[in-house]
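Help: read this over?
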Amino acid sequence: MNRLPVFLLSMLLSLSVAQANPVRIKDLVEFDGVRGNDLVGYGLVVGLNGTGDGIRNAPFTEDIMSNILERLGVNITGEQFRPKNVAAVFVTAALPPFARAGSRIDVTVSAIGDAKSLLGGTLIMTPLNAADGEIYAVGQGTIIAGGAVAEGDAGKVTQGVPTSGVIPNGARVEQEIDFDFTKLRSIRLALRTPDFTTAERIERAINAKFDRVVSRMLDSGTVVVDISATRAISPAHAIGTIENLGVQPERKAKVVVDQRSGTIVMGSDVRISRVAVSQGNLTLRIQETPVVVQPNPFSNGEPILVPRTSAGIEEEPGIGLAEVDGSASLSDVIAGLNALGVAPRDLIDILKSIKAAGALHADFVVR
């Protein structure tokens, strides 16, 4: 008996129980203006144990190394560098909302040359720019790489990705985003998964909390809140009250399958109309056994290769005609197919056929 459909059925039952509990609004929406900003920089990692860039293959490494040394007062005009302990890298980070000058953020460091590993390296002071070109943070610190490399004269083994790593709290915020949250008179709540029913429930929950009409649904993905109508001390106090309200979200029925791994993920609201299913497996076998025919003795002929092909089709036992009631959910269908011993990949084929027949009432996504 297949364990994958049994596991999916148990997940569906647990998810249906979890859906009975309300979800906080903060887990369903994004607040307008409360967002992070992406930062990127170009820097140099030093202190590598011979696993850095080859200067001939990565000339930009030599350029940035020369610029750094010149800023430090070292004159290297006309000098040729051939070190193997430095690597050029891109440094990326996310500036969180309301980050203040002096606070620290995590950074990710990735090699852009032919460096073999960043393990044990140290990132030299690297400015991090936002999309507007301004510098908002400066990164520096020791890299924690996520892999390892071992190699010899005739072999090499790599585990993980040693050419990328992180520096926890590796950047210090130097400039704050110019945004005054206290001046907001209204704020929009953007639903991560737009849905009219969920947006209406959020609107009702907010209005019930403040005992007056302070919010209004604009569309399936937006609810606007009038901060002044909440009579809160500040917008931050109003958002602090709103984000912890519980709402029961609604989701579109969807089935997602991954044919490569045989994974099936579905919601508990998926329904199937009355349909009959019959499934069987066919195996096609073709075997080539060519025969060489020799010419007669004392003749001038040449050997001839005569093809010989044997082909056959075998039908493995499958499931017979199974009828599904129109009131059944997809979890009921999976339980029934599992009882019949249907393999996970065969189950995916059956679901695709049911969808093609118009009996599966859900979005069917195949990856």
Q: What stands out?
A: The chain has three domains: 23-33+179-247, 37-173, 254-366. The two ends are 25 Å apart (CA to CA). The CA atoms of residues 67 and 76 lie 9 Å apart. Confidence is low (pLDDT under 50) at residues 1-10, 12-18.
